[in-house]
Q: What sequence folds into this?
């Protein structure tokens, strides 16, 4: 992903106006204010063209404060220090330096900001001693130093607030990206379960129809009807999921959210594919949270899909146990006995991810008869 640094990108017209406004307004205020202040300070150096140049060096340099904060800071330090040591009239000359050092520290250049404060203070005090300018007493020197320290700490407070705002925004964006990723994963699982289940049933019924069409054409009808029903239902579910992805306002066909209330329909459809399915329920059925209800249905659906696709089984048994603390699902088949542990493909991995997301567990093992057993514990 490519990002653009706002400090180096081409400024918009409005941003350009804002960049020009600060140095332009400050130049007028500082120059006019300093020349006006010179009338009441006869003991200071008279205002002249060089004083105006020093003032404009600091104010005009603020135009580049955003892309080049540190060079601008040192330009204001040098111009302000030169102004003070040449004993020009006291006035708003310090405004330029205050804006520069405040901006530099707030944007995270802490070392440069504090170095600028120290350089101006030490240069001013040391320069006056070297040049023999001793009109200020020790209290004035300490007061100026205190003001500089306060300025630095105020800038630090604003920097900390800015950093917290940036961190909060970053955390929010990461949470949104994580939520979007989790939603994409959920939709991918839904797509996998829907497509795998219906395509498996269509494949089995198509094989049956091809086998019967020449030998017993009158019996191929139910297989073709089952193919039609399975394909129609697959299209409805796929359109519903794709509608969620598009966030379309179109009136797409809707059907109830997949849950255990559709278990009878799932069993009936799977039975038409040639797999005899028995359902056994223990405990009193109770309303389940939407997420858990959907996960339970999809786990049973994927288990039956795997049996149809991979197991040479004639029947399967689905057991559902409603407990006080957990919903327990168990799907067994009478498939061909195989040695060793079962191989875990995408179907079992996806079922386990569904169970884990709800704080539960899912295991796949061989039954004593050699078939497959899927057991899921989903906490209530």
A:
């Amino acid at each position: 992903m490519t990002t653009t640094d706002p400090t180096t990108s081409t400024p918009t017209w409005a941003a350009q106006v804002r960049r020009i406004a600060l140095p332009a307004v400050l130049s007028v205020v500082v120059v006019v204010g300093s020349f006006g202040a010179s009338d009441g300070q006869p003991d200071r150096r008279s205002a002249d063209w060089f004083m105006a140049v020093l003032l404009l060096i600091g104010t005009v340099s603020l135009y580049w404060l955003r892309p080049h904060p540190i060079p601008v800071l040192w330009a204001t330090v040098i111009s302000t220090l030169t102004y003070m040591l040449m004993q020009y009239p006291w006035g708003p000359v310090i405004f330029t330096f205050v804006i520069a050092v405040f901006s530099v520290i707030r944007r995270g250049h802490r070392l440069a900001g504090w170095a600028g404060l120290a350089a101006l203070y030490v240069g001013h005090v040391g320069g006056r001693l070297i040049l023999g300018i001793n009109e200020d007493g020790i209290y004035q020197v300490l007061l100026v130093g205190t003001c500089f320290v306060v300025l630095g700490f105020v800038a630090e407070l604003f920097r900390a607030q800015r950093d917290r705002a940036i961190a909060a925004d970053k955390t929010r964006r990461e949470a949104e990206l994580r939520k979007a990723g989790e939603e994409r994963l959920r939709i991918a699982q839904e797509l996998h379960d829907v497509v795998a289940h219906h395509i498996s049933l269509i494949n089995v019924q198509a094989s049956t129809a091809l086998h019967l069409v020449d030998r017993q054409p009158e019996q191929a009808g139910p297989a073709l009807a089952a193919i039609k029903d399975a394909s129609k239902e697959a299209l409805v579910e796929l359109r519903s999921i794709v509608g969620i992805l598009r966030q379309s306002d179109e009136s797409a066909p809707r059907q109830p959210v997949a849950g255990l209330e559709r278990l009878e329909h799932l069993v009936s459809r799977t039975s038409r594919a040639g797999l005899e399915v028995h359902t056994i329920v223990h405990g009193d059925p109770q309303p389940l949270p939407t997420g858990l209800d959907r996960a339970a249905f999809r786990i049973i659906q994927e288990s039956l899909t795997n049996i149809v696709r991979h197991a040479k089984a004639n029947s399967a048994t689905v057991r559902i146990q409603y407990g006080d603390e957990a919903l327990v699902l168990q799907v067994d088949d009478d498939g061909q006995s195989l040695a060793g542990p079962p191989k875990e493909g995408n179907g079992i991995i996806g079922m386990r991810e569904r169970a884990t997301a709800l704080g539960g567990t899912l295991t796949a093992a061989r039954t004593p008869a050699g078939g497959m057993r899927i057991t899921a514990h989903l906490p209530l």
